[in-house]
Predict the 3D structure of the following.
Amino acid sequence: MLKRVHFQPSVLPYLLVAPQILVTLVFFLWPAGQALYQSVLIEDAWTGNSEFVWFENFQLLFEDTEYLSVFYRTGYFAGAVALTAMFFSLILAGFADRIVKGSTIYRTLLIWPYAIAPVLAGALFVFMFDPTLGILAYGLKLIGIDWNHKLDGDQAMLLVVIAAAWKQIPYNFLFFLAAMQSIPKSVIEAASIDGAGPIKRFWTIIFPLISPTTFFLLVINVVYAFFDTFGIIHALTDGGPANSTTVLVFKVFKDGFVGLDLGGSAAQSVILMSLVIALTVVQFRFVERKVEY
Amino acid sequence: MASIQINNLRKTYDGGVQAVKGVSIDIKDGEFIVLVGPSGCGKSTLLRMVAGLETITDGELFIGDRLVNTIEPADRDIAMVFQNYALYPHMTVYNNLAYGLKNRGFAKAEIGKRVRKAAEILEIGEYLERKPRQLSGGQRQRVAMGRAIVRDPAAFLFDEPLSNLDAKLRVQMRLEIRKLQKELGTTSLYVTHDQLEAMTLADRLVVLSGGEVEQIGSPIDVYEKPASTFVATFIGSPAMNLLPLSKDDNNWKLDNSAVVDVKLSTDLAELTLGVRPEDLVIEELSEKFDTGLHTALKVTAVEPVGAESYVHGTIGEGSVDIVVRAPGKLHFEPGQILKVTAKPDKLHTFDMLTGKRIELQGTLEIA
Ligand SMILES: Nc1ncnc2c1ncn2[C@@H]1O[C@H](COP(=O)(O)OP(=O)(O)OP(=O)(O)O)[C@@H](O)[C@H]1O
Ligand SMILES: [Mg+2]
């Protein structure tokens, strides 16, 4: 027999969730609604008059080859950021999992970058990689690489990928480490008795066993690269040179606030929003079911 | 197959815990050695040092005639069965068994042959394509055993492999492990804190306490001639009764009163007298025999355990608890006084201070 506990109706629960609901309403649902609304209007930048145009904004976007190339660039950028950030955090976590002494210091140091605001992280990389003043640009010159991300689009892309990935490593590191430490020690010991060296153990035992975490992080990192890299790009390259680091979220900003094409910018936001909703759905539906061993 | 020589092995963990304090054991080729002792006495630590999973602080470890102190676990030619089985959860049973062989570069055909043979011996052939989580505890245990035997190693190491099984399965697996080990003739080192497992499996028992060896010997030797009061009370259930006695005017006294009637040929002024519950006889229920010990027992409780009964009681001022194990279903009232007695050759004597066994010359005079 299942017995349910019944509570007297009370306003208290509603009061308790009210702040959360309010925040969601004001900072998420309302802007999202605004974006949806704006995306079906075309506004005259000079007079401020707007006209209802159905899906013309979307149609224009998909006919615009520039927009499509931004789409591909964003895919490339997100893939590069996610893979770089995950690869290095995986290796760092692999080492952190093995060391016994000084692990607290090691972990603390690795987590610090996460506390740095994206714009500050961007500023940091601007200093280090500045073609004339930056210490790393200087070092690269010494080994024969002519670094100038202000002129070279590929280098600019490389720079934002590195900066964005660097910022995300601590987050991934924590999740990877937690996942690795939840593997029973005896399983690893059994593998070492079974003749597998550290590297073989990592790829044949540890890596398969943390695959749910890896998948989860992949989604999180892609979402991060789509949205949260705005500050870094803004500070580092401002989308340039020649739009070579303009990704979707940056184009939304540029078209809307600089180009004053509110309708087109809103339509882009709506597309971006649907992408993230789709990713989140994928994550919720598959993380627990598909990635099992 | 190989012998294992453990020479004065020590382990001090970071932080200063001395888990193993100089243990020496000579294990002959094909022998089944059981390490037994209370929780925290260093059994697992010792076993893990043999496996190479724990570094050796001091001492020497030989497997065969090779000094393996600093050799990697993989190269020691041993296999280990863990308490939680430690199966690879993402691999099928087949791959769990094959993993160690693959890592050692065996040919595919040879791997298949060995895995199927091991699976046949352990009767897990029909589960080869399943993942560990699709198996019952007993089946997982068999897979863990299988993983050890496919490699045909020089030695098996077991760390409480049966303690996660239910009582019935434990008895069955115990018998199977014993049979398997005899058939394969592989040297084995087995850790348990279950004394029944220890007694039934071992060629020789090693009783550990506080990181030191208390006694090494065949189960019967350990049972019949415990080397110390620790071993005497650890092996055997219910535990051996211990009476602290002191001599006064040629009479042995307990709590300063002559409630115990025993004659011992020794110059010692005090000692601990040990007698197993099944060696104590209630005089009212038995035929006359030459007795070494007489005393009166005040019954506190009777526990019937089927074919026999445990009669609990106290002697003297009530400071010493005694258990008598007597056949049949017995009924005594609490407070009833019983005369109990034991044969002279059933008495054990220990040094009162060190707890070490003392063999009295000419054994005991008859009272
Ligand atoms: N990694 C470690 N670091 C420090 N001390 C440890 C470590 N592992 C074990 N010890 C200590 O060493 C002693 C022996 O431990 P061990 O695990 O060998 O006991 P055990 O005989 O196997 O006990 P049990 O029957 O409970 O498994 C204990 O006092 C334990 O606290
Ligand atoms: Mg243990």
